[in-house]
Write a structure and sequence with these properties.
By secondary structure, the protein is mainly alpha-helical. It has eight helices and no strands.
Length: 167
């Protein structure tokens, strides 16, 4: 993919902007913060060397890295008990609270993913939502393929135990 024109970088863009926003929402779990992440990434990309080709893979890595920064900042600001309370499912996350809610199983899985540590959550989102291979996930996160496999295994085991516990 060649470098997109400036108009394609907007948040309303159905291509890169929309994809980047969906990925950021899954990683930071807050639409406002995700929108800020994507806008920061696009601002940096607009200032990049015009000869540099920017494709979806480049954008994905930039969004994941910026989400890491946001999550690091959250960890610094929140104490241990506040962080545990923030990860607990909120009342608005329960199915049946508003029209158009997700099916019961999907809401339970999202709540279980929300409880994962940041690295495991990143691996789950990239491996199973973005449907990346182990090697692609490792490259996007800057970790080894073995670390991706271990984190995916631990995350799936924890999600499974959360879902069995809730049943």
């Amino acid at each position: 993919m060649t470098r997109p024109r400036h108009a394609e970088f907007g948040g309303s863009s159905p291509t890169l902007g929309g994809v980047g926003l969906r990925l950021a929402v899954l990683l930071v779990d807050e639409v406002g913060a995700a929108d800020d992440v994507v806008q920061d990434v696009f601002a940096r990309l607009l200032g990049a060397d015009p000869a540099t080709e920017i494709g979806y893979g480049y954008l994905r890595v930039a969004v994941v890295n910026e989400c890491r920064s946001v999550l690091r900042g959250r960890r610094r600001r929140l104490g241990l008990w506040q962080r545990a309370a923030a990860l607990a499912p909120r009342e608005t996350d329960q199915p049946g609270t508003a029209p158009g809610d997700e099916p019961d199983d999907a809401a339970r899985v999202r709540a279980a993913v929300r409880c994962l540590p940041p690295r495991q959550r990143q691996v789950v989102v990239l491996r199973f939502y973005e449907d990346l291979s182990v090697a692609e996930t490792a490259a996007a996160l800057g970790i080894s393929a073995g670390a991706v496999s271990v984190n995916a295994h631990l995350a799936l085991r924890r999600i499974g135990s959360e879902l069995r516990r809730d049943s």
